[in-house]
Design a protein that fits this description.
It contains 6 helices and 8 strands. Helix 1 crosses helix 6 and helix 5 crosses helix 6. Strands 1, 2, 3, 4, 5, 6, 7 and 8 form an 8-stranded mixed β-sheet that branches. The protein is of the alpha+beta class.
């Protein structure tokens, strides 16, 4: 079976392949088969947005038999995730990627640090919801959370998004300082995917 990912984020693709690669004959992004992974993220929860994205891609596949016919058996997977910061009343959440500007990671991190300047309460967590849908409509979903806090400044250059300002309690360092292998043992997405792995 081929797993088709409803994302254009290459970092997410790599993380998903590293964890689910042994369960599927092939894992490809929507880009790789000539489809888009765009859906209006109007949900109020990570699960709702992940479901919207997965359903959107599934509809595209069903409407394009010239593509789905070549793939054979397939399932669609989507993830929606974000950072939730206690001092900002849990803010960002489903809007993490659009906190300051549309998808500009550096601007988002800079704005977050400014908002929390001199604030001693810096606890935060990352949350992820993954949704897998089969063409017959069967849905599998799982969540994952990882705890930590927002640093005073960026540390490390690895990862993406808010990784280099998020200090992981599990790793005792920022996600930006962690190797991909280390991050994949404790990250919110990794935990959601590993929970999903148990269902497959």
């Amino acid at each position: 079976m081929v797993l088709i990912l409803a994302t254009h984020n290459k970092n997410k693709v790599n993380e998903i392949k590293a964890i689910l690669g042994g369960k599927f004959d092939k894992i490809v992004s929507a880009d790789e088969i000539g489809l888009t992974a765009q859906a209006e993220e109007i949900g109020s929860t990570f699960f709702q947005n992940a479901l919207l994205k997965a359903n959107g891609l599934l509809v595209q596949l069903k409407n394009k038999p010239e593509i789905s016919g070549k793939i054979g058996d397939y399932a669609v997977l989507s993830d929606d995730s974000g950072i939730c910061v206690d001092a900002l009343f849990g803010a960002r959440g489903v809007n993490s990627n659009r906190y300051f500007s549309e998808g500009d990671d550096k601007a988002n991190r800079t704005h977050m640090l400014k908002m929390l300047k001199d604030n001693p309460k810096r606890h935060a967590h990352f949350e992820s919801s993954v949704v897998l849908i089969y063409p017959d409509g069967k849905v599998l979903s799982q969540n994952g959370i990882t705890e930590g806090e927002i640093l005073q400044e960026e540390k490390g250059s690895g990862g993406f998004g808010y990784d280099c300002i998020f200090y992981s309690y599990d790793l005792n360092k920022s996600f930006g300082e962690a190797t991909p292998q280390e991050k994949n043992t404790v990250s919110h997405r990794a935990r959601a995917l590993n929970n999903l792995l148990k269902l497959l």
